Every structure is written in C-alpha cells, then in structure tokens.
Amino acid sequence: MTSEITLFVNPTAGRGRGAHAAQPAASAVRAAGFSVRTILGADAEDALTRARAAVADGTGALVAVGGDGMANLALQAVAGTGTPFGLVAVGTGNDLARALGLPVRDPAAAGRVIADALKGGRLRDIDLGRVDDRWFGTVLASGFDSRVNDRGNRMRWPSGRLKYDLAMLAELASFRPFPYRVTLDDGEAMEVEATLVAVGNGSSYGGGMRICPGADLTDGLFDVTLVGDCSRRTLLRVFPAVYRGRHVDHPKVTVVRAAKVEVDAAGITGYADGEPLGPLPLTARCVRGAVRVVGP
C-alpha cells in the first residue's frame, strides 16, 4: 500500500466544520507516518472526478471529510475498487460513521483511528446498496420521511435541523399513507398501504434514527422496514421509539429481509444516504463486500 492518503473534503459540511476538520485529521494521519493529499472540488461532479482519479492513481486510502452526503460521494469513487475507504464524520447526521464505529465530530480522533487501522491492516469488506449506478451505505428512504426531505429541501429558511423539524410538522398536517407495491428478490409483489418503506443496508438515518435496527453491513441482505397505514396519532406515538429501534415491536411495523428490493409508489422520491435518487419505482440490490473500509 502506498503511504499517500487522500483526504476528500467538503468544506461546507456541518456549517463549515468540514473545512476546519481537515487540518486536525491530516495532522493525525501525518503523525502516523503517512503523506496526505487533499481534494476539493468546484462542485460535486468535479470533486468525484478528482476522487476517482486519485483512486485510479493508487492512493493508499480515500478518506471522506464531511457528512453523509460526502461519504456517499466518496463511495461512488471507491466501491468495487479495493481502495480502502475512511470517514472523518463532521456533518449533521453521520449515520455511516456510527455504523462503522468511527468517531463522530472529533476529526483528530477519527484521523488517529484511521491511521492506526491502516498501519495495522485493520480493513474489512462491507456491503453496499446499489440503485442503477448509484451506491449507498445506509438507508434508502421513501414515503413520509422522503416527503419531509422534499419539503425541507425546498425551504430557504431556517437552516440546519430546524428546517427539517418544521418540514415534518408541515407534512404531518397533510399526512396520509401511500399505496405501495414492494417486490422482494424475484418474488410476488406486495400491495400495501404504508407510511414509509425503508431499505436498510445500515441501521440508521437522519442522525441516529434506527429505522432498520437489525441491519447488518456484512450479511448480503437489506433489512426492509415497512411502516403500515398509521393514523397521525399513531405515527406521533411511534416516532420517538425510532431512536431506540423499538418501533419494530409495533403491530403496524413489519421487517423483512431481501437481497433485491423494488419499491414503487406514485409521487414519492427515493433518498439514499440523504441524497435524492429520483422518483419511484426504484430497484435496490445489496452487493456483498462492495467496499473495503478502514476502522475498528
């Protein structure tokens, strides 16, 4: 393995924490004897082009510095290549970092963990989800949660998490279940009225909401959480339990496992790792051992 490590930096992550995080992370990696190259892109497309070039040039690891969106962008560059992937998580959600057992919002600690793991050869292969040519590490969300994302992304004020809290309240006011068609592997399609359908490679989204609490990054299967036709009152009662993963005990919630999931519902956008994939229908495939990750 080359001693050069590439930091893939989003300077705007976490209201500017990405730019401030790069220096302590780089210092920790250099202190372990590695050289560091930093990539900044003019935009997402330019950044991804640069990251793919670094991987093609044989970088020792690609380390994303930012939030889940930056991690998702880095996955597009490293998936299927064998190049180790690391993550210095300084965004708002940081769900992939939690799934990997990496420090959150402590760039120096994350840099030390990554450097120690690279020196000690502590690398492991984990699964990724794939929709067409797009990879994702955590959860493909659709339904009530994706409608909240849609609304929040349209709002110009306020900023940060408060925007999505307000978007959730607005969506609750017009809440209704959606008619879904869900097909697992190549079996018969299920026609269901559902509040949301979440396809989990990882267990959480939205900054620790454990929507698919039993998801295993190494089993070659998605955990698919279907929240049924809840009333507004039931949804409000069940929602807090998501942070502990206890919602799966509710009779309106069903969890199934599959390696391939097709999800279809009219007027619904799919989001993966918090990034929009486009309108349903979408077909996700779990690809076993798709990326090599650095960490504990």
General description of the model:
This protein is an alpha+beta fold and 296 residues long. The chain has two domains: 4-121, Rossmann fold; 136-287, Tumour Suppressor Smad4 (Sandwich), CATH 2.60.200.40. 32% of the residues lie in helices and 32% in strands. A six-stranded antiparallel sheet has the order 6-5-16-13-8-9. A six-stranded antiparallel sheet has the order 12-11-10-7-14-15. Strands 2-1-3-4 form a four-stranded parallel sheet. The chain starts with a strand and ends with a strand. Its cofactor is Mg(2+). Residues 1-135 form the DAGKc domain. Keywords: ATP-binding, Kinase, Lipid biosynthesis, Lipid metabolism, Magnesium, Metal-binding, Nucleotide-binding, Phospholipid biosynthesis, Phospholipid metabolism, Transferase.
Strand content: 25-35%
Just name the CATH architecture of the largest domain.
Sandwich
Radius of gyration: 19 Å
Helix content: 25-40%
> Which fold does the CATH topology of the largest domain refer to?
Tumour Suppressor Smad4
| Low-pLDDT windows of residues | none
Secondary structure tally, helices: 8
Total individual domains? 2
Spatially, the strands of the biggest sheet line up as: 6-5-16-13-8-9
Shape: globular
- Briefly note the structural class of the backbone: alpha+beta
Strand segment tally: 16
For the record, give the distance between the C-alpha atoms at the N and C termini, rounded to a whole number.
19 Å
- On the 0-100 scale, what is the average pLDDT? 92
CATH class category of the largest domain: Mainly Beta
Cofactor: Mg(2+)
Family: Belongs to the diacylglycerol/lipid kinase family.
Protein name: Sphingosine kinase
Keywords: ATP-binding, Kinase, Lipid biosynthesis, Lipid metabolism, Magnesium, Metal-binding, Nucleotide-binding, Phospholipid biosynthesis, Phospholipid metabolism, Transferase
